[in-house]
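Extended Data, panel c. Modelled sequence:
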Amino acid sequence: MKKIMNMFSLALVLTLTGSLAQAKLPAPSDEAKAKAVEAAAKAAWSGKVDAYLSCKAQDRVAAHYFKAFKAQNKDTQAPKEMPPCGDPGVFSYAPAEVAKPLEAAGAHSPAPTATSPPSGKVPAAAIAPDKKI
């Protein structure tokens, strides 16, 4: 009987926990979104810095290896050509410019400057003559 009660209690706790986990959080504000984007950019830059420092450390280890073996008059294979380590520089973040929505109808836009008169001297009948059937 105790075993059944324990299982029932466990099921009840799991059900309540699951319903709490499904609660919706409010949408983040624009400021929170901007901070998240900046944090992601900083994390990406940190990864590039770590890769750069690792590359420099590998170069130092390889140089020490070849120097030590050369001092002992041992033969080594020629080192493979590797691309140079790329320094990521200092972190700089410039937030992206938010594009302003374009006017859908253009009702508030000023009229363009006229460069020619609105109509010509050619009569409309000459532009689109009637077709004779």
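The chain has a mean pLDDT of 80. This feature is highlighted in the accompanying rendering.
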